[in-house]
Design brief:
By secondary structure, this protein is an alpha+beta fold. Helix content is 35%, strand content 38%. It is flat, with a radius of gyration of 18 Å.
């Protein structure tokens, strides 16, 4: 349905192991063709755009040791930020302490949050760059931004794949480590 409505879609890509199927990222379709695959950093970026990250564990070096945190959630809001269809994305990533040397100090929590933000920004940028090159807004960023400016969307919708390919969305990431 998404392919018919938007002209693009994504589907999980799988590889065949000895006795099981293993997740290998996402296949992205544009028009009636396979545009390509998102793997690794790009696949995690798509998951952040969609608000459904896999439980990724990130190790962070701290002044007196290290901590491992598990990304447990994400919510990405898409809004139009200008009359030409410029998009502002705000991604809020939540995580929990998976392993460490006891509770984190406020300073350590800040270090962990900045590291998570940097990682998420890189993953989002990587996914967006690839999707834009394919003219494939399979995360429905345009339609989601339309909620903030329906009149603007009605003017942009017809040419959205082309506009999307030329945009450089502003990306803001906020990490939250509750109770960590």
């Amino acid at each position: 349905a998404q392919l018919l409505e938007q002209g693009c879609a994504y589907a999980p890509a799988l590889t065949v192991g000895e006795a099981e199927l293993t997740a290998a990222g996402y296949a992205v379709f544009s028009g009636d063709k396979l545009a390509g695959f998102l793997q690794g950093e790009q696949a995690r970026g798509l998951e952040l755009l969609l608000g459904c990250p896999m439980a990724e564990v990130v190790e962070v070096s701290l002044p007196h040791g290290r901590a491992a945190v598990r990304i447990t959630g994400a919510r990405t809001v898409s809004r139009f930020a200008g009359p030409e269809g410029e998009i502002k994305l705000t991604c809020r990533v939540t995580a929990e302490l998976a392993e460490g040397n006891g509770p984190l100090s406020e300073g350590e929590r800040e270090i962990v949050c900045r590291r998570l933000e940097s990682l998420a920004e890189r993953e989002l940028a990587s996914a967006l760059e690839q999707l834009r090159s394919w003219k494939a807004d399979c995360a429905s960023l345009g339609q989601r931004a339309a909620l903030s400016a329906p009149g603007l969307w009605s003017k942009l919708e017809q040419d959205w794949p082309e506009l999307f390919s030329r945009l450089e969305p502003e990306v803001i990431v906020q990490a939250d480590l509750p109770g960590g």
